[in-house]
Amino acid sequence: MREISLPDTQATTALGHALASVLRAGDCVLLEGDLGAGKTTLARALLRALCDDADMEVPSPSYTLVQVYDAPVGEVAHFDLWRLDGPEGVHELGWDDAREGVVLVEWPQRLGTLAPPDALRITLAPDATGGRIARLEGWDTRLAQSAVFGTGDASWA
């Protein structure tokens, strides 16, 4: 597990850009945290970086439940499962097809057993200074081999 300090929105955006550099088709990123923890902010930064469009409109999929974007790495599906009670409705949202591309999931606990065991799990939590801490679980070897994450510090932020 890696812990990364995110003192402000710019650091959260930098984390999204750094993550975009290591994503490839078939990847799943699970974004956890309470309401207002920064999940959507991180997802927006990641999507804008993946699509190479800093000004791209990235609406929250809270009401549509899923938004799909075309990116050089392939299709990217951004799921917000807040309104689902469990995994029953996920297949109707195109979950199986979306897994061929990159998948970002807010409120992944609603996936139940559908949560891929090889996913990168990011938990965002407030810290004592008013910022946030991002806890990244999974992909230890992959992140360590990345030029961005392999430095052992948060100098990329």
TrEMBL record:
The main location is cytoplasm
Among InterPro entries, the record links this protein to: P-loop_NTPase, T6A_TsaE
| Alphabetic keyword roster | ATP-binding, Cytoplasm, Hydrolase, Magnesium, Metal-binding, Nucleotide-binding, tRNA processing
Q: Where in the cell is the protein located?
A: Cytoplasm
Q: What do the Gene Ontology cellular component annotations say?
A: cytoplasm
Q: Name one GO biological process term.
A: tRNA threonylcarbamoyladenosine modification
What Pfam families does UniProt report for this protein, alphabetically? TsaE
- A GO MF term: ATP binding
Homology family: Belongs to the TsaE family.
Which named protein is this?
tRNA threonylcarbamoyladenosine biosynthesis protein TsaE
